[in-house]
Design brief:
The complex is a heterodimer of chains A (406) and B (608). Chain A is built from 8 helices and 39 strands. Chain A has an 8-stranded parallel beta sheet. In chain A, strands 15-18-21-24-27-30-35-38 form an 8-stranded parallel beta sheet, with no helix packed on it. A 7-stranded mixed beta sheet of chain A has the order 5-4-1-6-11-8-12, sandwiched between helices. Chain A folds into 2 domains: 218 residues, Spore Coat Polysaccharide Biosynthesis Protein SpsA, Chain A (Alpha-Beta Complex); 170 residues, Hexapeptide repeat proteins (UDP N-Acetylglucosamine Acyltransferase, domain 1, 3 Solenoid). The longest helix of chain A is centred in the middle third of the chain and has 13 residues. In chain A, strand 9 and strand 10 form a beta hairpin. Chain A is of the alpha/beta class. In chain A, 18% of the residues lie in helices and 32% in strands. With 608 residues, chain B is α/β, with parallel strands linked by helices. Chain B has 3 domains: 246 residues, Glutamine Phosphoribosylpyrophosphate, subunit 1, domain 1, CATH 3.60.20.10; 185 residues, Rossmann fold, CATH 3.40.50.10490; 160 residues, Glucose-6-phosphate isomerase like protein, domain 1 (Rossmann fold). Helices cover 36% and strands 25% of the residues of chain B. Chain B has an 8-stranded antiparallel beta sheet with strand order 3-2-4-1-10-9-11-15, with helices on one face. Chain B has a 7-stranded antiparallel beta sheet with strand order 5-6-7-8-12-13-14. Chain B has a 5-stranded parallel beta sheet with strand order 17-16-18-19-20, sandwiched between helices. In chain B, helix 4 packs across helix 5 and helix 8 packs parallel to helix 11. Chain B is globular. Chain B starts with a strand and ends in a 17-residue tail after the last helix. Classes of the chains: A alpha/beta (406), B alpha/beta (608). Chains A and B meet through helix 5 and strand 12 of A and helix 6 and helix 13 of B.
């Protein structure tokens, strides 16, 4: 069976991080999230993969190439300027050719291992025509709600929120086995959910593969921090490359991964689980704790604290900074004394402006989301849940109280 | 549900052993009787008996059966009790055509009538037995070929079926057909399999052909031929290789049997309601006439009998006690001819309960039981049986059988209310209306609370101790909820009558200590509220199972699990347990516990 990964979306809600990269190239623990999916596809034996690209697709093509380095065979299709899942699925039609079914995967999901295997199992076990992987989601937000019957078969897919008071809390987890009949439904103007419903009406059996473990859809900026935590929580070993330089009085707790060429200066406390990429420098008396992923070539200066945060490659956090529950973009510089405030005082749920709307994040701790190539001046203070556009320069001593958009 | 399997091969081996191994993998589909048909020296040999596979193979040496071809069946009785006669395979009058079947033939009475008129004689009460006789009629009387005869038969029968036929007429072939019931083919270099489910032969081959409805297959040791039995067109279908781990297969898309069984409850309850059992009124009458009533059960079933105890006291106005089966000795001195013993059991094989009812029977008591497994030991010792119709339950932690037992208790309770006049006509019919709607309410409860339970579980999983509090009828819900939590999530959880909690348990409460309150909107509501406040004052974190829209309770809770309106009094013990099943399940998943097979526990305790 061939696998189709939809990776062409713009991911506008992930501003500012998607200003400079497509969503699937968001890098956690040194790998783009798309790589985790490709690895899992390879593990279940689906090595014939089509990636449908669109927005900034060249980054994906350059990184994955023909898939040789990843043990799979990758083809590409382009959805061009046409946006949306429907356009992406149609772009895959030619590649599927005369196969009767294929595995469809969204590229912005991060989950515990085994999701794709579960889908294949359910498909074969139930001998169904199609299969959708479902997971429970508390806040169903923009997800397509799916109703199932007592035997675990799909009754109706793609239900919008608030249709029923007693609505299902199962949402599709972005992994499907699809019959190619769906192309015709979609060409006739149906959305993916409608197309599946049409096929159900025509007598197709659609099985639900229920995923009870952790699953995150990277739809909003704070999901990156959650996904990072999920991936790190599964790291059960400490692995330090042989050429890593570790100074005196460095304290390591729990699982810590440190890649080649990195230096940890004396007095640093590394409280795992955490990941530090190659060729980085962690300065004297720093504290790195609680699920941090630090990209390649990053600098953390003297006395800084990094907590539950994602630092993309080449980020430079100079002395005496505090970075908590935040995402720092590629090559961004935080000058000395920058503080990302990560709680409201008095404590309350933090809101974030997403696409002009203030959304409740459900979190009481959330710091800043800073794009690539920014320069934040000395002693800046960034309020909780604020975002700074890529390439911004913030002068010293500023209190960032509203988002900085280009 | 039944499990079927067939093997045809080039070499003569101990084929009985292979059939038994395959059937063992299908035991989840049913396990009340087993049978095999094989052909040796051009004669069809039938070996079958009632009982689980392991029991039957102890009595009969099926493993030694030799041959190149055989079919086997493991049964879950729905029509006709599990007896040797009713066990499959069934055979025609001449003893040449044997058939195994999974499904239900709806028009079998008319067809059986026709066959009786034609002079066929029947050995069993099953619907399946008409098939070999119909085939025989066509082959022997009308000179049709065996294959053609089977095709004509499957076109005539209505209902669901997966059938396999072996006959000494063509001793090297298995003929199969299916509609709605599952059937798959497995392919080896020198032998072919067919079975209800892939795990049956997964240790032998991974090459599988899936069959669709209305397809007919001829299997020989060299290959397979598929045709559409309506159009007679040949169908080309290549095998594919399955890649999954065998233990996954039987659960469809669910990760665990327990979750599947929680979701099945609207169906199992609907089945119970749909099948009207004449024994119900007789049981109610006998309880109403009795002087002393004891309910007898172990484990989860004990909590369902506490609902029964409450209802018998309320509606029959009789002194009644629910006794844990292993504590039966404490009541032996009370048992006489005027005593009714009502054992409740999923398996009908719980050793403690069997020993107790045997002794009570000797002392003259009437035994009236509520049991899931048809024909099990307890039912054979009972004057009357109310069946639970919950189907096979695989997860060790009882879910759908608990709600089935509980609905049976309510069923008996309502009948008693009618008999005694405690429920007048309009009250009785109102209660019966609620009763009919239980499957819908359970469905809504599942949908509404599953993701909340999942959310609460991520917090609960970090705890190592908890309390479950309730009052009145729903003390039982608290008991059962706590049992689920300790059974599968290994979190110490103690259930207590809420009013009693200040006499001891409250001393253990500390900051952020989990306390689950079961708070229906009935006469216990106000008192429960003061219990919640009491616990909160000591730092406890309150999780409430409550009727939707009960603001007084909602405001006190950190987390709420909501039951649709109207079920706080009548039938409350059914919907109120559902969210607690989910809570235990997701907590166990978060902790990485083995949900379906918790350590140190087994499904049926056949030891004292």
């Amino acid at each position: 069976m061939k696998a189709v990964i939809l990776a062409g979306g713009k991911g506008i809600d992930l501003f500012p991080l998607t200003q400079t990269r497509p969503k699937p190239m968001i890098t956690l623990l040194g790998k783009p999230i798309l790589e985790y999916l490709i690895k899992e596809l390879k593990e279940v034996g689906l090595t014939d993969i089509l990636i449908v690209t669109g927005y900034k697709g060249e980054q994906i093509r350059n990184y994955f190439g023909k898939g040789k380095d990843f043990g799979v065979c990758i083809h590409y299709a382009d959805q061009g300027d046409k946006e949306g899942i429907v356009a992406a699925i149609l772009a895959a039609e030619e590649y599927i050719n005369d196969d009767s079914r294929f595995l469809l995967l969204f590229s912005d999901i991060v989950s515990e291992k085994g999701l794709i295997q579960r889908t294949l199992n359910a498909y074969e076990n139930t001998q169904s025509d199609m299969t959708m992987t479902l997971t429970l989601q508390g806040d169903t937000g923009n997800f397509g709600i799916v109703e199932i019957d007592s035997m675990g078969m799909v009754k109706k897919a793609g239900i919008k929120t608030a249709e029923l008071s007693s609505r299902s809390k199962y949402v599709d987890a972005g992994c499907f086995i699809i019959k190619t009949d769906i192309f015709e439904e979609i060409r006739n103007g149906a959305s993916l959910g409608q197309a599946i419903n049409n096929r159900i009406e025509k007598g197709d059996k659609v099985a639900a593969a229920i995923w009870e473990k952790e699953w995150i859809d990277i739809g909003k900026p704070w999901n990156i921090i959650e996904a990072n935590k999920l991936l790190l929580s599964k790291v059960k070993e400490t692995r330090i490359a042989s050429d890593v330089i570790i100074g005196a009085n460095v304290e390591l707790k729990n699982s810590v991964i440190i890649e080649s060429g990195t230096e940890i200066s004396s007095g640093a406390v590394l409280n795992g689980p955490l990941y530090i990429g190659p060729n980085s420098y962690i300065g004297n008396n720093t504290l790195v704790r609680d699920h941090c992923s630090i990209g390649e070539g990053t600098i953390v200066g003297f006395g800084s604290e990094i907590k539950n945060s994602v630092l993309f490659e080449g980020a430079k956090i100079f002395g005496l900074c505090y970075v908590g529950d935040s995402v720092i973009g590629k090559n961004t510089i935080l000058s000395s004394g920058v503080i990302t405030v990560n709680t409201e005082t008095p404590r309350k749920e933090i809101e974030m402006d997403v696409g002009g709307k203030a959304l409740s994040t459900g979190l009481t701790k959330l710091g800043a989301i800073i794009g690539d190539n920014c320069e934040i001046g000395v002693n800046c203070l960034i309020c909780p849940g604020r975002k700074i556009a890529s390439g911004s320069v913030v002068s010293s001593g500023t209190s960032v109280k509203t988002d900085i958009k280009n | 549900m039944c499990g079927i399997v067939g093997i045809v091969q080039q070499q003569e081996t101990k084929i009985g052993k292979t059939i038994i191994e395959a059937l063992t993998k299908l035991e989840y589909r049913g396990y009340d009787s087993v049978g095999i048909a094989s052909i040796l020296d051009n004669k069809v040999l039938i070996t079958k008996d009632q009982g689980k596979i392991s029991e039957v193979t102890e009595r009969i040496d099926i493993n030694k059966i030799k041959g190149k071809i055989a079919i086997g069946h493991t049964r879950w009785a729905t029509h006709g009790p599990p007896t040797k006669e009713n066990a499959h395979p069934h055979i025609d009058c001449s003893g040449e055509i044997s058939v195994i079947h999974n499904g239900i033939i709806e028009n079998f009475r008319a067809l059986k009538e026709e066959l009786l008129n034609q002079g066929h004689s029947f050995q069993s009460e099953t619907d399946t037995e008409i098939i070999p006789h119909m085939i025989e009629q066509l082959v022997k009387k009308e000179g049709v070929s065996l294959k053609e005869a089977i095709i004509q038969v499957v076109r005539r029968i209505e209902g669901t079926f997966a059938i396999c036929v072996v006959s000494s007429i063509e001793p090297d072939k298995i003929f199969c057909a299916k509609r709605d019931s599952p059937l798959v083919i497995g392919i080896n270099s020198d032998r072919m399999f067919c079975a209800s489910d892939i795990p049956a032969f997964l240790d032998k081959t991974r090459k599988v052909v899936l069959l669709h409805d209305d397809e007919f297959v001829t299997l020989s040791s060299k290959g397979y031929e598929i045709i559409d039995f309506n159009t007679m067109e040949k169908i080309q279908r290549k095998p594919h290789i399955v890649s999954w781990k065998p233990e996954m297969a039987q659960k469809a898309g669910f990760p665990h049997f327990m979750l599947k069984e929680i979701h099945e409850q609207p169906n199992s309850l609907a089945d119970y309601i749909r099948i009207k059992q004449p024994s119900l009124t007789r049981i109610a009458e006998k309880i109403y006439k009795a002087e002393k009533i004891f309910l007898l059960a172990a484990g989860t079933a004990h909590y369902s009998t506490l609902t029964g105890e409450h209802l018998i006291r309320r509606y029959a106005k009789k002194s009644c006690s629910s006794i844990i089966a292993s504590e039966y000795d404490s009541i032996t001195s009370l048992i006489d001819e005027d005593t009714v013993i009502l054992p409740v059991s999923q398996s009908g094989e719980t050793m403690d309960t069997i020993m107790a009812i045997k002794s009570a029977k000797e002392l003259g008591a009437s035994i009236l039981s509520a049991v899931n497994v048809i024909g099990s030991t307890i039912t054979r010792h009972s004057e009357e049986v109310l069946y639970l119709y919950a189907g096979p339950e695989i997860g060790v932690a009882a879910t759908k059988t608990y709600t089935a037992q509980t609905i049976a208790m309510w069923d008996i309770g309502l009948e008693l209310g009618k008999l005694s006049g405690e429920l007048n006509n309009s009250e009785y019919s109102a209660a019966r209306k609620l009763f009919q709607e239980i499957p819908t309410v359970v469905k809504q409860t599942i949908v509404r609370n599953e993701s909340r339970a999942n959310h609460i579980a991520s917090w609960f999983a970090k705890k190592n101790s908890s309390f479950y509090l309730g009052r009145g009828l729903n003390l039982q819900t608290a008991n059962e909820g706590a049992l689920k939590m300790k059974e599968i999530a290994y979190i110490h959880s103690e259930s207590y009558p809420a009013g009693e909690s200040k006499h001891g348990p409250i001393a253990l409460v500390e900051e952020d200590y989990p306390v689950v309150f079961v708070v229906p909107k009935d006469q216990t509501n106000k008192k429960m509220i003061s219990n919640i406040m009491e616990m909160k004052a000591r730092g406890a974190t309150a999780i409430v199972v409550m009727e939707e829209g009960d603001r007084d309770v909602e405001d006190l809770a950190k987390w709420k699990l909501e039951i649709p309106k109207g079920y706080s009094e009548m039938l409350s013990t059914i919907p109120f347990i559902i969210p607690l099943q989910h809570l235990a399940y997701y907590t166990a998943v978060r902790k990485g516990c083995s949900v379906d097979t918790p350590k140190n526990l087994s499904k049926t305790l056949t030891v004292l």
